[in-house]
Amino acid sequence: MSSFFRSEGVSLCHIYVQNEMAFDIVSEFGSLGIVSFVDLNSEQHMFQRRFTNEIFRCDAIDSQLHSIINQLSKNNVPILEESHSEFPSPKYRDLHQLEQCVDSLNVELKTLSKNMGTIRESYIHTMEQYSVMKKMDKLLSSIESAQSLIDVEDHTVEQVQINTLTGLIASDKMMPMERILWRFFGRNIYIKVIELEEPIETIKEIGMDDEDQFVYKKVFTIYYKGDNVENKLRKICDAFNTTIIDMPNSSDRAEMMNRLDQQIIDTRTVLSKSKDYYHKVLRNCSTEIFKWRVQVIKFRSIFIELNKFNYDLAQKCLIGELWCPDGNRPTLSNVLQRFNQINDYLAPTILDIIPKRNVKQTVPTFYRLNKFTNGFQQIVDSYGVADYQEINPAPYTIITFPFLFAIMFGDAGHGLIMALFGLWMVLYERPLAARKIRDEIWQMFFGGRYIILLMGMFSIYTGLMYNDFFSKSLNIFGSSFGPVRPGTNSNGDLWYNNATMELRPDRVYTGTPYPFGIDPVWQLSANRILFLNSYKMKLSVILGVTQMAFGTTLSLLNHIHFRRYINIICEFIPQILFLMNIFGYMNIMIFVKWFKYSYENASEAPSILINLINMFLMKYPTDGPIYLQQWFPGQKTLQIFLLLSALICVPWILFPKVFYLQCFKRNRQYEQFVDENQVDEEGDAAGGGESPSSPSSSTNNHGHNESFGDVLIHQAIHTIEYCLGSISHTASYLRLWALSLAHSELSEVLWSMVLRAGISASGSSHYLNGLIMFFAFSMWAVLSVAVLIVMEGLSAFLHALRLHWVEFQSKFYQGAGIKFDSFSFDTLLMENEIH
After folding, report:
1. SS3 667
2. Among 21-25, 170-174, 685-689, which range has the highest average pLDDT?
3. By its UniProt entry, which Pfam families does this protein fall under (predicted)?
4. Between these two residues, 665 and 697, which has the higher pLDDT value?
5. Alpha carbon of 471 to those of 495, 517, 791: distances in Å?
6. Which residues, in sequence order, are CB contacts of 642 under 8 Å at separation 6+?
7. Alpha-carbon distance 298 to 29, whole Å?
8. Domain boundaries, the chain
9. What is the pLDDT of residue 195?
10. How open is the CA angle 330-332-337, to the nearest 5 degrees?
11. What is the full DSSP assignment across 681-695?
12. Helix (H) and strand (E) counts for the chain?
């Protein structure tokens, strides 16, 4: 866990490896996930690199695999998945074999699909012919009437040749085609239409659809005279995608129907066997497709990393540059030693570790994380990755983030629901992860399951402290306010005759405070909101100042680690004094007021706000109300001292460091010092801080090469940012009170306007009252989850995020580092949604 508080040491290494061993070594590194390769060919185009052709081969294999996977999916053949950790590291010789297997399978599936499509098309065409034949007997009887319609104007009997054109068309296209035919030919044709009772299967490519599709069709026969008309009729029918069927003579019709019937049986048998064989091939490949996809992803990633290597023509070897955490260096050496022993006939692989003081690049930041700490580290990294070996806010965020969230979400009932939801995801994380749900919202919730669990648990705690359970108070230990003594009011009426009563602590307080949290009697009090607002407002300020002071203290640890001692004197000391002289003093006044003043002398309790205003105005009244006067002897002297000390801290932050850097720069030994010791903050971190008197600032190394004006402007911005930020950030913590108030009031509104209204319903019968209560409870439950838990929870989460990113981390955290991007097969497969 030590590497979690501050990033682990990372070393820059050069590796010299023979071509024959390079692939296997990089493959082993990918399995271990312990190194991050540096691209030494960043200036080269991708097509100029050594292993680009192999990457294209992998892309072609991956494209074929996706085509096969689509066919498996459309035919409802499940892919048998295994744990990819059981697969061995790929070898270069396996690429050609994989390429051949995938290519031959893809060709076979396409050939089968094409052949079945041809057979199916023939089968459907035969079925259409057979269906038309069965309907033709009904149409033949209309020939004479059609001929009489054509000869309407001439009543003389004349020998006219009547031709027919028979076909099949989709039902929804029949009417449009009929209109077109009547527009073109008018009374020169006659159309007879009969609808088929059963739908006919459409012509689709087999293997490419989830299920067969059927369409209702109609048989049509067009009677016409003249040979020139037929060509026009066929063109119009083709435009509507009809199937034209050549009808035989009546004497041959029965024989043709028998032949079509036998052809249908034969074609159906062939098609069924083809489908069975096609699905057998799919089932066989479904056991291998997952392994092949994992392999091609690994192959492609290895070649991408190998493209980052330089090639030495003289030594005929590859030269690579990589980052390796110090804790993994023994593993790295063991891997190379093992490969050298296996390939003893080749030149050995050499690993050259660069001394950290000679490293000029920005060192990446590396933390060893687990599934619990990973979520909180992601919260920090979303704002910015820590500089190398800078203090990591994540360990403190594990506690402070859910706690500040709970301050705003302080309801034990709602926190219980959230905690149970998080606990469910934690206890069933393996089966839930195995389901591989792709929904982004679910993945966000599941990835933050431990955060949700802690937020719920802390909300239960703060809810019990507020004594707020679904907007109601729990009287667990019994109220500290005893029974009201009998008496009369000013009108002489007994107290139990009044709608309200006054609980005076001097009369009804037992003298022992409620053991845990807020006394439940405040739930009935008319001034409940005033009391809770005062309490939560002061609590927000106390927590805010404490967290900012802690963040400023963490900056001291950074200065000590990087040996930036000038920053301790010129930044940390005046910053902590400025913060504590004003806001720390205000927190002390809050505690003094809580401990010194009770119900016995509540009227004498001073106003903290007025006192703080008078402190800045240097007004100390001696007359007037007692709560506006001084608290204690010597208060005036103390506050003037604190105020002047805070004002002195402003030029203290601004000028001394600037003049120190300028004097240091003018020193005649400056050049020599730079050559030997100049290291920027990231270099200090890489070397563990070899420069005890390094003048680098807390933000960047602006003291060496920048002019005096630039340094002064930079430091002025830093000073203004801190001083004004301390004031605005303290006020920003009041969001803890504001959101807590909004949550409690919304919860109270839902209780009184929805649930209580349903419970107190007075219907005409018990059944009606029960029905009303059921719907009222259902509405209350849905609104509580949707509004108070989901929406209010998201709002509190975002505000807690802001408080950590801005108010807390700005005091010590730069967040300008580079994340250690390890070459890991596990990470790559997760990115490709393979678990």
Report:
1. coil
2. 21-25
3. V_ATPase_I
4. 665
5. 28, 15, 17
6. 581, 582, 585, 615
7. 11
8. 1-40+315-368, 135-260, 369-474+514-524+734-750+786-812, 539-733
9. 82
10. 95
11. HHHHHHTT---TT--
12. 32, 11
Q: What is the pLDDT of residue 353?
A: 93
Residue with tokens 């909101």: 529
Which residues lie across from 214 on neighbouring strands?
Answer: 201
Question: Other C-beta atoms within 10 Å of 639: how many?
Answer: 20
Residues 6+ apart with CB under 8 A from 438: 833
Buried b (16+ CB within 10 A) or exposed e, 313-325: eeeebbbbbbbbb
Tokens standing for residue 17: 């490896």
Three-class SS of residue 646? helix
Apex CA 695: angle with CA 647 and CA 686, to 5°?
125
Strand (E) or helix (H) holding 201: strand 200-201
Q: What share of the chain is helix, strand, coil (3-state, %, to 5)?
A: 65, 10, 30
Reading the block at residue 209, the tokens are 């659809």
Q: What is the pLDDT of residues 516-530, one digit of tens each?
A: 999 898 888 888 888
CA 311 to chain centre: 40
| CA–CA gap between residue 675 and residue 656 (Å, rounded) | 25
One DSSP character per residue, 7-28 reads PPPEEEEEEEEEHHHHHHHHHH
Q: Class of the 135-260 domain?
A: alpha beta
pLDDT at 144 over 60: no
The DSSP result for 277-332, as a single string, is HHHHHHHHHHTTHHHHHHHHHHHHHHHHHHTTSEEETTTTEEEEEEEEEGGGHHHH
CATH for 1-40+315-368 is: 3.30.70.120
Integer Cα distance of 320 and 146 in angstroms: 89
The burial of 123, by beta-carbon neighbours within 10 Å (0-12 exposed, 13-18 middle, 19 or more buried), is given as buried
Instruction: Note the pTM of the prediction, 2 decimals.
Output: 0.81
